[in-house]
Amino acid sequence: GVFKKRDDLKIQIMYTSIDREKKNKIKFTDHYFQVDSGNYFYPASTVKLPVAILALQKLNELKITGLDKNSAMITEPVNDWLTGVNNDPGAADGRPTIAHYIKKILLVSDNDAFNRLYEFLGQEYINNSLHNMGYSSAQIIHRLEISLSEEQNRLTNPVSFFDSAGKLIYQKPSEKSQLIYAGRSTKIGNGFYRAGQLVNEPFDFSKKNRLSLQDLHSIVRSVLFPESVPEKQRFNLTKEDYDFLRKYMSMMPQESGSPVYASPDYWDTYVKFLLYGAERGKAEPYIRIFNKPGDAYGFMIDAAYVADFKNNIEFLLSAVIYCNSDGILNDDKYEYKTVGLPFMKNLGRIIYEYELKRQRKKKPDLSAFQFQYS
């Protein structure tokens, strides 16, 4: 079985069973396997979830008349390496907006969309907000997919928002983050490739993003059940914000009208690791997975709330596994397909099968999580 002691797989699993009680009270029971915030893993695309949520929160905090997630968002270039955006070919009307970037993040895990929200918020806001909420070990300190220095990632582009008549509503200047983040020594592996050359020493993750599995799990839970987390761990969101996030966390790429994600590149379960292993089959029509996965540097992560509207079951499940048996990083030889995805799929299935049999005193009302998708 998978659960033999395998240090090299760096597995961590967090599973929360959910019981509905009287007067709509909900009881959560957490189960842990090797969960250890001191055991670093690279969080990959999972950092996009808190940033997407914080973008909506920031709009609520700004309280600027006429500024919302559908306002046109123009990003000015700073120089050759911090490019700008003044139109989005994926949007029905060509306008980049916060709503559109969040959709792209949740539907297909778009890297550029994350970078644009990172620039809108800045390092200080992202990290201080998460730390104030109790996610003290979170460090979201660099853009994704583009290789920039630590200093370059401190710098954000100027961003301007316009109303539908083209009038400027809000402008955020270019800023340089003064964030002082906790130093750490995080080295992994036996070697790594740099500029095509093998370097025979561990890869240094000390200046890379960090998000622990408990924090990620808790962030997912707070989006689905805000009333169940301590008040300071609740994001400052409206009901409309929650519905928007839930809808796009659980929507399948081809159900989206804007942006359009056509097959065969984007199938139903394209970003659903748990339960499906991201296989190209059809999703069960009565199951919805509200999640954010990621994979990079051999680490594969998924954090999900699973709801089955036919059998009335629900649970939260998050997991990470390291798929890099040769211990060499940046060689693009990771066992995502042979180790990571089968593990995620089977883990999801095992918990799902268990939940199908588990006796519940009270049938859950899952109507808050049912959406019209198309």
Write a structural description:
- This protein is 26% helix and 21% strand.
- A hairpin with a 5-residue loop joins strand 5 and strand 6 (168-172).
- The chain is an alpha+beta fold and 374 residues long.
- The two termini are 40 Å apart.
- It has 7 helices and 15 strands.
- Helix 1 (48-62) runs antiparallel to helix 2 (98-108) and helix 2 packs parallel to helix 6.
- The protein has a 5-stranded antiparallel β-sheet, with helices on both faces.
SSE arrangement:
Blueprint: E1 12-20, E2 26-33, H1 48-62, E3 72-75, H2 98-108, H3 111-132, H4 150-154, E4 155-156, E5 159-162, E6 168-172, E7 175-176, E8 187-188, E9 191-194, E10 197-199, E11 203-204, H5 213-224, H6 239-250, E12 287-296, E13 299-308, E14 313-322, E15 328-329, H7 336-357
Parallel strand pairs: 9-15
Antiparallel strand pairs: 1-2, 1-14, 3-5, 4-7, 5-6, 8-11, 9-10, 12-13, 13-14
Provide a concise account of the structure shown.
This protein is 26% helix and 21% strand. The two termini are 40 Å apart.
Sheet-strand content, in percent, reads: 15-25%
End-to-end CA span: 40 Å
The whole-angstrom Rg is 20 Å
How would you write the strand order of the largest sheet?
2-1-14-13-12
Label the overall shape.
Answer: globular
Keywords summarizing the entry:
single chain, 374 residues, alpha+beta, three-stranded antiparallel sheet
